[in-house]
Amino acid sequence: MKRYYVIVEGRVQGVGFRYFCMRTAQELGLTGTVRNMLNGMVEIYVQGKEPQLFVFLDTIKKGDRWVQVDDLTTKEVSLVPNEKNFTIIYY
């Protein structure tokens, strides 16, 4: 199990990107959170088995017809024990 902190830049707000991330994570059995940042980027914490994490990151990099990811940075962080879901955080 690993957990990554991910920052995504590009056309990622106002295009359904958070829902795209949530749906992809849920399909892969991953947990974590996704939220819009005030600077136009999106912040993701994602946790799970490494093969599924790689598929998740590759999928969100590709985006969909509305999403365009220009840059994606990842950093491994500490696991969150007993995390059960992947959710969108609204502010």
What is the element layout, followed by pairings?
Layout: E1 2-11, H1 17-28, E2 31-36, E3 42-48, H2 50-62, E4 68-77, E5 86-88
Parallel strand pairs: 2-5
Antiparallel strand pairs: 1-3, 1-4, 2-3
Helix pairs in contact: 1-2
Taking strands numbered 1, 2, ... along the chain, how are they ordered across the largest sheet? Answer: 4-1-3-2-5
Per DSSP, the total helix count is 2
What's the average pLDDT? 96
Shape: globular
Q: Between the first and last Cα atoms, what is the distance in angstroms?
A: 29 Å
Beta-strand residue percentage: 35-45%
**What is the radius of gyration?**
12 Å
Q: Tell me the structural class.
A: alpha+beta
